[in-house]
Amino acid sequence: MALRINDTAPDFQADTTDGPISFHDWIGDGYAILFSHPKDFTPVCTTELGVMAGMAGEFAKRNTKILGISVDPVEDHHRWKSDIQSYSGNAVEYPMIGDPEMKVAKLYDMLPAEASGEPGNRTAADNATVRSVFIIGPDKKVKMSMTYPMTTGRNFDELLRTIDSIQMTANHKVATPANWKQGEDVIITPAVSDDEATEKFGSFDKVLPYLRKTKQPG
């Protein structure tokens, strides 16, 4: 069964480019992004890992760790890193899981249980569904998941925007509207009465009886 928001992210042990990890322990008390790739040495994924490497500092500011994965072995990841740096100018310093037995890919429902075969004999098309992103919180719950087609490079600015929203709304009784960006007005959740909203936020704009906006808290 596919993972849903607020499901506990399955724990696992795996080999990575930084050595063995136990996933929940590795996350610790912060957030994590698990982002997956169909195959090493593929064009779109090379651009993605380079962009993520260049943005690693922005994720670190948000107490968010980065973890890549493909079903190729760790030694292939190490060789791929030089191509990624050559293309993007960014060194990949976050760990990448080697998953040649496809255990993690199947655990996260990125590949069907019956998927099999040596990773070297599997094409990117065989692994097309391994193009997912999961944001996982300190409580080890899935906060967001998204799967992209192979031909569409992922928007990592959107991941930052989503993390900003998730972290802010976890601490305040607000939600973020469509296309929200840092510093823009937010929505007061329906569970907050008008009196409580005035007390908490000072002022707000009642756009509709059920839609109230206020300045971003914090």
- How far do the termini sit from each other? 38 Å
Shape: elongated
Structural class: alpha+beta
Structural Rg: 19 Å
Q: Which regions contain 5 or more consecutive residues with pLDDT less than 50?
A: none
Number of strands: 11
Report the biggest beta sheet as strand number plus sense, adding barrel if it closes.
7 strands, mixed
Strand order of the largest sheet: 2-1-5-4-3-6-7
List the defining traits of the structure above.
four-stranded antiparallel sheet; alpha+beta
Give a quick summary of the entry:
The protein is an alpha+beta fold and about 220 residues long. The chain has seven helices and eleven strands.
List the helices and strands and how they pair.
Layout: E1 13-16, E2 21-22, H1 23-27, E3 31-36, H2 43-54, H3 56-61, E4 64-70, H4 74-88, E5 96-98, H5 103-107, E6 132-136, E7 142-147, H6 156-171, E8 174-175, E9 186-188, H7 194-201, E10 205-208, E11 211-214
Parallel strand pairs: 3-4, 4-5
Antiparallel strand pairs: 1-2, 1-5, 3-6, 6-7, 8-9, 9-11, 10-11
Task: Report what the structure shows.
The protein is an alpha+beta fold. Helix content is 31%, strand content 21%. The protein contains seven helices and eleven strands. It has helices at residues 23-27, 43-54, 56-61, 74-88, 103-107, 156-171, 194-201; strands spanning 13-16, 21-22, 31-36, 64-70, 96-98, 132-136, 142-147, 174-175, 186-188, 205-208, 211-214. The strands form two sheets. The protein has a seven-stranded mixed beta sheet. A four-stranded antiparallel beta sheet has the order 8-9-11-10. Helix 2 packs across helix 4 (74-88). The chain is elongated and about 60 Å long. The two termini are 38 Å apart. The relative contact order is 0.15. The model has no long low-confidence stretch (mean pLDDT 94).
